[in-house]
Amino acid sequence: MALLWALAVLSLLPLLEAQSPECANLTAVAPITNATLDWLAGKWFYIGSAFRNPEYNESARAIQAVFFYFEPRHAEDKLIVRDYQTIADKCIYNLSTINIYRQNGTMSKIESDREHFADLLLNKHLRTFMLAASWNGTKNMGVSFYADKPEVTQEQKKEFLDVIKCIGIQESEVTYSDEKKDVCGPLEKQHEEERKKETEAS
Ligand SMILES: *[C@@H]1O[C@H](CO)[C@@H](O)[C@H](O)[C@H]1NC(C)=O
Ligand SMILES: *[C@@H]1O[C@H](CO)[C@@H](O)[C@H](O)[C@H]1NC(C)=O
Ligand SMILES: *[C@@H]1O[C@H](CO)[C@@H](O)[C@H](O)[C@H]1NC(C)=O
Ligand SMILES: *[C@@H]1O[C@H](CO)[C@@H](O)[C@H](O)[C@H]1NC(C)=O
Ligand SMILES: *[C@@H]1O[C@H](CO)[C@@H](O)[C@H](O)[C@H]1NC(C)=O
Ligand SMILES: *[C@@H]1O[C@H](CO)[C@@H](O)[C@H](O)[C@H]1NC(C)=O
User: Fold this and answer.
1) Number of domains the chain is built from
2) Where does the record locate the signal sequence feature (predicted)?
3) What are the DSSP E strand ranges found in 5-127?
4) Dihedral of alpha carbons 49, 142, 70, 25, sign
5) H helices within 54-174, ranges in order?
6) Site to substitute for ligand 2 among 103, 104, 120, most atoms within 8 A of C-beta
């Protein structure tokens, strides 16, 4: 899930604090608690993203649709991720692990022998969350947006667009996913049936 993990070296927070008014209501989640992890458990849909970093911008534009499941491992400070990406009309399934740094509200993932960081921003009321990354300063800033349903409401979308504005990106530069292009449904169903059988067998 490369697009989740823009190469965040700098924290987004100092940049957000410097701006306004769109940034006013935006706070990163810190610390991440067991309750936060429980809140994140379950199925999520990737809605859209905006990345200044050209490499991430390009990979985001190649993605047609993504949904995934988070499974918390509280004691290990980890989330297991099962993600279903549709790229070039093909389904790509991956199982991976996200590390949680509870104190500073950061998540990370090892990919290509590097640890990629992102700050978690969430809205409990709206059932959405965002992962924010700033790589090499504002020049490479990026945010990706997730919701518990493939279609977002106007209110949810506004929240995302406020963040985009806050970091100085235009709405026209946002890349959205298209749920109608998803081809991972059958594989998800197959996995569900396999799990059911395993549960019955044990
Ligand atoms: C899927 O996982 C493999 C092995 O961990 C990795 O090499 C590959 O880049 C991953 N693909 C995606 C699309 O994340
Ligand atoms: C959060 O903490 C971890 C572990 O101490 C550190 O590696 C990471 O860089 C920190 N992230 C931020 C954004 O400060
Ligand atoms: C921030 O939150 C306050 C109170 O909920 C609301 O009145 C205000 O419109 C919000 N600001 C933005 C930029 O969304
Ligand atoms: C992503 O790339 C496209 C095409 O090059 C560009 O039009 C768009 O502005 C870029 N998005 C961001 C957020 O920089
Ligand atoms: C979080 O959950 C784990 C596993 O259930 C537990 O070991 C740990 O003590 C909990 N942490 C807090 C702060 O409650
Ligand atoms: C930022 O990126 C540019 C181009 O990739 C690089 O030349 C520069 O050293 C980077 N600066 C920092 C502070 O990492």
Assistant:
1) 1
2) 1-18
3) 42-51, 63-73, 78-87, 90-101, 106-111, 114-123
4) negative
5) 54-62, 154-166
6) 104
Does ligand 3 come within 6 angstroms of the Cβ of 148? no
**Coil vs helix vs strand at 9:** coil
Per-residue pLDDT tens over the stretch 84-135: 999 999 999 999 999 999 988 888 888 778 787 788 887 767 788 888 875 4
pLDDT digits (tens, 9 = 90+) for 4-60: 443 333 344 444 544 556 565 556 677 899 999 999 999 999 999 998 878 778 888
174 within ligand 4 shell (Cβ under 6 A): no
Dihedral angle computed from the Cα positions of residues 177, 132, 102 and 109, in that order, rounded to the nearest 10 degrees = 60
Check which CATH number belongs to the domain holding 94 and give it: 2.40.128.20
What whole-number distance in Å separates Cα of residue 176 and Cα of residue 167?
18
Cα 173 to middle of ligand 6, angstroms? 23
Separation of alpha carbons 32 and 26, rounded Å: 16
Domain boundaries, position 130: 3-201
Closest ligand to C-alpha of residue 119 is: 2
